[in-house]
Amino acid sequence: MKGQSSKLNQDQLLYLEKMGIYFEREGFPRMAGRIFALLLTDPGGKLSASDIVAKMHVSRGSVSTMTRFLIERGLMEKTGSPGKREDLFRLKPDALSAMFAQRVSAVQEFRELLQTGLRMTDPKSPNSRYMAEMADFYNWMESRMPELWKEWEENRNKKSSG
């Protein structure tokens, strides 16, 4: 971001930290969430590793590790820029789709774990009923997710065309 101040104000820093904490609760490294938030709010939408280091006052190694992590999860991509020697990073246009797919996978995995646990539990135990209810809920949620995604895409398409 040439010509722009590399300093973030307190509100921006707080936002990055809150996003980092959210990502951490979701099982991602906090730094990945902070970098995601920085790219999400950056006016140019593209930053080099040096830009990220300067804005966040973090180590280059941490930025390298976390940008690779975000790329591997389909949330970010590496791109170039004419006349620039350093790669730029930006959020992938389909990052939302990647995040949703990960959520679907997590729901499916948890449902499968519950069903496996159910097969090992005495059907008369109180925990068995609780586990069966949880498995039913996650099965229901998993079955609804494709429809929800379709509804979202239809809604998004209506907004973008009108």
Order of helices and strands: HHEHHEEHH
Q: What is the CATH superfamily classification of the largest domain?
A: Winged helix-like DNA-binding domain superfamily/Winged helix DNA-binding domain
What's the CATH class label of the largest domain?
Mainly Alpha
**Could you say which overall geometry the principal axes of the C-alpha atoms support?**
elongated
Low-pLDDT residue spans: none
Strand order of the main beta sheet, please? 1-3-2
**Biggest sheet overview:** 3 strands, antiparallel
- Estimate nothing, just give the exact number of structural domains: 2
End-to-end Cα distance, whole Å, is 32 Å
Radius of gyration, CA atoms, in whole angstroms: 20 Å
Our estimate of the beta-strand percent is 5-15%
Put simply, the count of helices is 6
Quote the average pLDDT.
92
Helix content: 55-70%
- Tell me how many strands there are: 3
The CATH topology label of the largest domain is Arc Repressor Mutant, subunit A
How would you explain this protein's 3D organization?
With 162 residues, the chain is mainly alpha-helical. It has two domains: 10-91, Arc Repressor Mutant, subunit A (Orthogonal Bundle); 95-161, Orthogonal Bundle (Helix Hairpins). The chain has helices at 10-25, 30-41, 49-56, 60-72, 95-120, 126-161; strands at residues 47-48, 76-79, 88-91. Helix 2 crosses helix 4 (60-72). The mean pLDDT is 92.
